[in-house]
Amino acid sequence: MTECLAYAVPEAHAPLAPMRLQRRALRADDVQIAIAYCGVCHSDLHYAHNDWKSSAFPLVPGHEIIGHVTAVGSAVSRYKVGDAVAVGCMVDSCQHCKPCAEGQEQLCVTLPTPTYNGKDRVDGERTFGGYAESIVVREKFVLRVPPKLDLKHAAPLLCAGITVWQPLRKYAVKQGTRLAVVGLGGLGHMAVKLARALGAEVTVITTSPNKADDARALGAHHVLLSKEPVAMQAAASSFDIILDTVPTRHDVNPYLMLLARGGTLVLIGALEPLEPIHGALLMINDRSIAGSLMGGLPATQELLEFCAEHQVLPECEMIAMQDINGAFERMQKNDVKYRFVIDMASLAL
Hints:
By secondary structure, the protein is an alpha/beta fold. It is built from 11 helices and 17 strands. Helix 4 (160-170) crosses helix 5 (186-197). The two termini are 24 Å apart. 44% of the residues are buried.
């Protein structure tokens, strides 16, 4: 086993604090990674606060990991020491069910093993995430970082990026697709950038007039203010797909009215009950409402390659590990544009 320094939440709502963490000894198909950067996801905050009543403490968050290989198991063939690699929201799955066979590991019928707050499928030990110096991960769940991808900005692609990329690919967003994005946070800003790079005509739907300039700077063609009834009425039946990134309970009915014939509203933010949906809004225009959860390993690797080729990168604010509690406080106030990324070199200071 290897000991490393990490930052952990000792109990719900407590500040993150340093702790020593034991990483498992390498199995034959394991890759050991020195973590260089780790993104800060809003779900890290939810788990730290035990908002979903499933957190086990102490908890080491972090599932947007960028680093370099420092050791490999005897059966590893895809990676060697020094390779730039990435790890996302999953570190294992059953590998036998139909979703796993199709590269949709996030939909594993026995549930994938999360990078943190999960249990290892071999020894039952708790999984601890990327707010740490190092991590050990099964080779299959390690992704290659293309040489042209900026390591400092790549981490949020492993969660925010793939969460957006999955529905963009599933619904074949391309040149001429009329796409709207509800919300302009960590997910929303990546949705704008990726949809624009795929050729879509992109509209940002927001409650805040102050976000209009930011939306256009990120690549949006149009901005629609959802609190302006006249503008919303004028936009009725005009979008092929709407990506709803709002992370909390809300009313989706106003957005359903904006869908064109056969259009789909895809939920990628809210992991909780929604306000009641008016059935007539779905029946009129043959509309649909769907959900999308992360993406599998092939899709995530495809995303990394696409972002390297097209230089599509998240907007990141770099922080030191020691500043994580302040970052959590700011994240609660939506005071970040648009993702925090921890520079793990700060752990050595």
